[in-house]
Amino acid sequence: MPMTFTMEDLQKRLQERQHKMTPQRRIVLQIFLDRPGEHLSAEDVHGILRSNHSEIGLATVYRSLELLNKLGLLQKMEFGDGCSRYELNTTDPSAHQHHHLICIRCNKVIEFEDDLLEALEQDIADKSGFRIVDHQVKFFGYCKECQNSIEN
Amino acid sequence: MPMTFTMEDLQKRLQERQHKMTPQRRIVLQIFLDRPGEHLSAEDVHGILRSNHSEIGLATVYRSLELLNKLGLLQKMEFGDGCSRYELNTTDPSAHQHHHLICIRCNKVIEFEDDLLEALEQDIADKSGFRIVDHQVKFFGYCKECQNSIEN
DNA sequence: TTTTCTGCAAACGATTTGCATACAC
DNA sequence: GTGTATGCAAATCGTTTGCAGAAAA
Questions:
Q1: How far is A24 from chain B (nearest CA, A)?
Q2: pLDDT tens string A38-63
Q3: Which residues touch strand C (CB under 7 A)?
Q4: Does A126 touch chain B (CB under 8 A)?
Q5: Minimal C-alpha gap between B145 and chain A (Å)
Q6: Strand C positions with any atom < 7 Å from protein CB?
Q7: Which end of chain A lies in a sparser environment, N or C, as judged by fewer CB atoms within 10 Å?
């Protein structure tokens, strides 16, 4: 089980860049800590806050997500559904970055890791001369459940 | 050099779905035929039309791009610059789908093909049970030229 | 007290839509 | 002629921004 961040990490990283610790930022991070593995949009977060009776302005949600991303606590991603989504980073530097399988029938997003990807990246770098610093890999298809229900 | 589509392909595919051949659709496709390998946004296309003295309403440009995509003549993609981009598909069914290396300094997009990707996809499918029908692979980094100018 | 933050409302940019007219078939 | 397409303007949607008041440091 990969380690995630703590509030102290948030505090420390905010201070390093002369930002301030605020209840809003703490609460937004806590939402992700409470939901490991979920890919939340700004609207999702805003809705969760609303249902928690801890309303925070939508603009502040956007600003907090962007900040937590810059601080390295959240990772930003796009699944082609028209909005940015965020998920908690792991603190484990040796962890492989995971990637996403997106079911085009039920819209489920599942994650995978695969060592072949590292080989692919190395191969691309060698052939192209690019110095690669990040990648995005998404596979679209039908998950097991949807394959079954199509057959029936 | 991969084969691309012709106006006859457009005509045929339009008829199959009871759509009509219009000058606007013909002109939009021609723009892509004239610029193989370019990744054009709706605004790009609209600008080219403007400079060609063949103005077409922006809404029609959007509708044409979406239609050409549905007909399989164009491929839609996102590079994270806030707008959708399109490029001509090849007609060669045995061609490997190519992928993109995006320079995060000069924003150049270059394309690559790599057989390892097929292996990766097969591996993922085996492990996850997903039936994969499409994928998106983007690598972000520094192109050769930008690596050089950073060193200087 | 100084600087950064928040919340609100207005602004934004890409894309979509409603509708009357024009055109392809 | 019939049904689809176009052009325009207005609407939409996610996101960003300006600004005045609030709150961290």
A1: 27
A2: 999 999 999 999 999 999 999 999 99
A3: A 14, 18-20, 22, 24-25, 55-57, 59-60, 63-64; B 14, 20-23, 41-43, 58-59, 62-63, 66, 82-84
A4: no
A5: 9
A6: 3-10, 13-18, 23-25
A7: C
Residue-level pLDDT at A75: 92
Which of A129, A137, A144 has the CB atom closest to B144's CB atom? A129
A19 contacts: CB under 8 Å, gap ≥ 6: A67
Q: What is the reported pLDDT for B30?
A: 97
Say yes or no for a CB contact (<8 Å) between B129 and A135. no
Same domain, yes or no, for A87 and A100?
Answer: no
Q: Do A68 and A10 reside in the same domain of the chain?
A: yes
Q: Are residues B43 and B81 in the same domain?
A: yes
User: A103: closest CA among A136, A140, A78, A149?
Assistant: A140
Q: Which domain holds residue A9?
A: 1-91
Q: Which of A15-19, A80-84, A147-151, B51-55 has the lowest mean pLDDT?
A: A147-151
- Which pTM value belongs to this model? 0.86
Name which of B101, B114, B124 is nearest A139 (Cβ-Cβ): B124
Q: Do B151 and A144 contact (CB within 8 A), yes or no?
A: no
The better pLDDT of the pair B3, B29 is held by B29
Q: Which amino acid is at A70?
A: K
Residue B80, CA distances (Å) to A127, A136, A142, B104, B140 in order: 24, 11, 25, 11, 11
Q: Which residues of B65-98 are buried (b: 16+ CB within 10 A; e: fewer)?
A: bebbeebebbbebebeeeebbbbbbbeeeeeeeb
Domain's final residue, options A49, A70, A91? A91
Give the pLDDT of residue A1: 57
**Together in a domain, A86 and A24:** yes
Residue B36 shares a structural domain with residue B49: yes
Q: How confident is the model at residue B3 (pLDDT cuts 50, 70, 90)?
A: confident
Looking at the structure, do residues A37 and A72 belong to the same domain, yes or no? Answer: yes
